[in-house]
Amino acid sequence: MSFKKIKEVIEDGDIVILYLNPNNMHPLEVKEKISNKKGKIIDNVFNTAYGALRVVSLIGQKYGSKVELTRGWAYVLQPTPELWTLTLPHRTQIIYSPDISFIIHLMELRPGSIIIETGTGSGSLSHALIRTIRPSGHLYTFDFHEQRVSIASTEFEKHGLSDFVTLKEKDVCLEGFGEELKHKVDAVFLDLPHPWLAVEHATVALKKAGGKLCFFSPCIEQVQRTCTKLICEGFIELHTYECLQREMNVQYKLLPILDLECLKHKHTTEDIHKNRKEKQEEKLLTVTQSHSLPGHTGFITIAVLPPTYARKKEIHLQCRNSDK
Amino acid sequence: MNAVVEDTCESVEDVITVGTHVIVKKQDFSKIYKVSENGILMLGKNQRVEMQEIIGKPFWSTFEMVPLSGNKGTFTLTLTDEIEPWNDLKGELSGCDNRSITDDGTSQRLSKEEILQLQEAGKTGKEIISSLIENSKSFSAKTEYSQEKYIKKKKNKYFKFLTIHKTSILLLHEVYFKRKHEKIGGLRMDALAQMLSYSDVQSDGLHLLYSNGFQGLPAAAMINRIGTNTSGYLINLHPGNMPQTTFIEAMNFPQELRDRHLAVNIYSFLRLHYQGESSIIDNISKKVVIKDTEESHDTEKSSEESEGETMNDEVSETDMEVSELETEIKENGTLLTSDTGEDNSTLKRKLESEEPEIEAAKLKKPKKSANKLKWLLETKRAVDLLSSMKARGLTIVAKEHPLQIAKALLPFLGISRPFVIFHAHREPLQETYMELKQKRNVINMKLFTNFLRSYQVLPNRTHPDILTNDTSGYILTGYLVE
C-alpha cells in the first residue's frame, strides 16, 4: 500500500525501494515468504553485493532509515512514481520520468482528470498518471496482452491504487474504448505501434467539451501518419517534441598547473625551493558527462480537440475527399 | 458527429465571465487578458480591440475583428461561426523548383498604399491575400510548398480572427516563454514539468516551495497539481515583502484552493519557527519607527520586488512606468477611450505592455495595517502546519545560491521524501551537490539538464524546427534520509 499515502513506518505488505547507490536500487515486497522461480515458497531473503537482507526484518523500521546488510548497509525508501520507474520489473519497454513529466504537462492533467492510457505495458507511466489525477480523477488503462494486464492489476492492488484505475484487456485499435467511455475523458494517451488506428476511437471517447490527445512513438513515420489522421479528425495545434535528459556527474578534478613564467629568467636554487611550495595543481569542482547516453527515446506529440461546437467542418470534407 | 452542437453541455465555467483571466489567441500569437465590462485589448503596436463582446460567450468562440469606422486602429468584435476556408487560395499552377524566380523586388504589383487601401476598405484577410496573389508575378512559379508558406506568412499578417481560451499553466507559460522568457527565468516547460514530477507534488500532503521571481509560475503550477477540493497544502516561501502572483491570479483558482496556498516571507518564517512569536513582535516594534518614515519608499520597493527582478534595469523600469500609468487610468474609470491622440509617448508605452491588466492588478497596494496582521497570521499558520507534519516534497526555484536555502529548508522535509532544485546555472548546483553529499543525510542525488527539440511534421517535409531554445537550466534532485 506504499503508494497510497505518506508512510513513516514500514508495514507488512509494503513495497519498499532498497537503495545501495543511484545505479543499484531494488523494489522489495515486504513479506515473510515469496515463491522462487520454480514456484517453491521460500524465505524472503534479498541478496546484494553487500550481503543479504531478510526482508521481513524491515517491518517496523522507518522509511528513509539505514538498514544493516550482512556486509554493509543500505537505505530503504518509500517508493515515488520516479523511484518505481527506475526499479520496476520490465515486461515491456518503458517510458522514463523525463518523458512522463512532459506527457503529463502537455496533457494538462491535474486532480480530477479522467484519462485513458494504452498500452499499460509495465505500468511505469500509469503510476505517475495516477499520482497526478487522484483522488477524484480516474485512469482507464488498456493492453491487449493478457499476462501484462493481470500482473499490472495485481501491482495496482498491492500498491493501494485500485480505486483510481480500471484495467482492461482489449485491442483498442479494433474494438475501441467501449461504450461506457463515450464522451467521458479529458485526455487520451497512446503508446501503440499503430497509434493512427486508435485516433477515431479516441475522438469518440473525448468529452464533447474537447480534450487532449498525446502519443509516444519512437519512429517518425508513425508520427507522420498519426498526425495526418489527427488533422482529419479535427484535432488542432499539433506539436511534436523530443526531450532528452542529460545527467552529469559532479566531481572534483585536479588540474596540473604549469609554471612557464619561470623559464624566462635564470633561477637560483632558492627560487626553485619557493616554487615547489606554490601549488602545482588546482582542485576544480566540475562535471563529467556520460560518454554514451540515450540519444533518442521517442517523439511526443500533443494535439487538441476543440469542443464540438468549435470543431472545423471543412477539414472533414477534405479528408473524405482524399480518402476516395 | 458535428451535427451535435447544441447538446454540448455548457456549464457556467465554460462561459467567459467578467473578472476572470483568459487567453486570447490570434494565429500563433497569444496574450493574457482580464475580462472587464469595457475592456480594451492591445494587439501589437497599434491595434485596439474592444472586448465587451466576449462576455457571456462560451470559451473557444471565434470573433472577427471589425474595424470601427472613423477610429483608425480600433476594432470591435463580432462572434463568427466559421472562419473562412483558406485552402482554396493555392494556385492551380505551381513550379517544380525556384530556378525561374529572382528577387528583384518587383514581383508584387500592388504598392504599399494600394494594400493599405484594401485594408481600410474593410476587405477581409482572405480577400486581401487573394489580391496579393493575383498581383504577384512569381506566385504561380513558386512550388506548392512555397505557395503554402507564402499564404501562411500573409495570413499571420492579415488574419483578423481571435479565439478565447481558458487559462492553463501550459498556455500561460507559452505566452511568457515566447515573448518574455526572462521574466520566468527562462524556465522551459520540460524543466517545469520535471520539477513537478520530482517534487512529488500531488493532491495530498504539505508541499514546500521556495521561489523568488518567475512571476509565481512554480507556485501556480504546484497549486494546479494540488487541485480543487483536495487536502494538499502549498507553503510558498519567498524573500520579499510580496510574492509574485501573476500566474496564480491568471489561473482563476477558486478561493478554497487559494486558501491552501500560504505565501510567507522566508525570514519571518524561520525567525518565528526558531525564536517564537515574541521575537517577531519585538522585531516589528523596533522597525515601526523607521518604517513610518520610510512608508512610501517601502511600497515602492515591494512593488519593485514583485516586478520580476529583471536583470535588465531598463526593462523593469519601463514596466513600472507602464503599470503606474495603468493604475492611473483605472482610477479615473476610463480606459483610454477618448484622449488617444493626446499623449503619444505614454500611449506608446502602454502599447508595448503585454498584459496591462495583470500588471495593474499586481500593483494594487495592500492596506498597510490590515496587511501587517495578515502576514503574521499567515506566517504562524505556515509554522504551525510544518510543526504538525513534515513536507512531502521540497522545491527550490531560486535566483540566489540554493545551498543556504536548501540547508535551511531540508529540516522541514519528511524523511524518505524528495527535493528538487532548479537553477539557471550549473555551478551553484555543483556546490550544493558536494556540500549536501558530504553532509551525508541526502541520497540518490542527480544533477541534470535537458535538451528539447520540436519538429515540423508535414507529409514529405518533416524535420526538426529551425529554431530551438538552449536555456534549459539545471535540476538537482535527491532524497532525504535519516
UniProtKB/TrEMBL annotation, chain A:
Catalytic activity: an adenosine in mRNA + S-adenosyl-L-methionine = an N(1)-methyladenosine in mRNA + S-adenosyl-L-homocysteine + H(+); adenosine(58) in tRNA + S-adenosyl-L-methionine = N(1)-methyladenosine(58) in tRNA + S-adenosyl-L-homocysteine + H(+)
tRNA (adenine(58)-N(1))-methyltransferase catalytic subunit TRM61 C-terminal domain mapped to chain residues: 72-304
Residues that bind S-adenosyl-L-methionine: S122, G123, S124, L125, D143, D171, D191
GO terms of biological process kind: tRNA methylation
Keywords: Methyltransferase, Nucleus, S-adenosyl-L-methionine, Transferase, tRNA processing
Record GO terms (molecular function): tRNA (adenine(58)-N1)-methyltransferase activity
CC annotations in GO: nucleus; tRNA (m1A) methyltransferase complex
Assigned EC number: 2.1.1.220
Subcellular location per the Swiss-Prot or TrEMBL entry: Nucleus
Family named by the database record: Belongs to the class I-like SAM-binding methyltransferase superfamily. TRM61 family.
Function: Catalytic subunit of tRNA (adenine-N(1)-)-methyltransferase, which catalyzes the formation of N(1)-methyladenine at position 58 (m1A58) in initiator methionyl-tRNA.
Protein name in the entry: tRNA (adenine(58)-N(1))-methyltransferase catalytic subunit TRMT61A
Source organism per UniProt: Mycetomoellerius zeteki
UniProtKB/TrEMBL annotation, chain B:
Stretch list, region Disordered: 292-360
Biased composition range(s): Basic and acidic residues: 292-304
GO cellular component: nucleus; tRNA (m1A) methyltransferase complex
Subcellular location(s) of the protein: Nucleus
A GO MF label: methyltransferase activity
Acidic residues: compositionally biased ranges: 305-326
Cytoplasm keyword on record: no
Keyword Lipoprotein: no
Keyword field: Methyltransferase, Nucleus, Transferase, tRNA processing
BP terms from Gene Ontology: tRNA methylation
Primary site of residence: nucleus
InterPro entries registered for this protein in UniProt: TRM6
Family membership: Belongs to the TRM6/GCD10 family.
Protein name per the record: tRNA (adenine(58)-N(1))-methyltransferase non-catalytic subunit TRM6
Provenance organism: Mycetomoellerius zeteki
Lineage: Eukaryota, Metazoa, Ecdysozoa, Arthropoda, Hexapoda
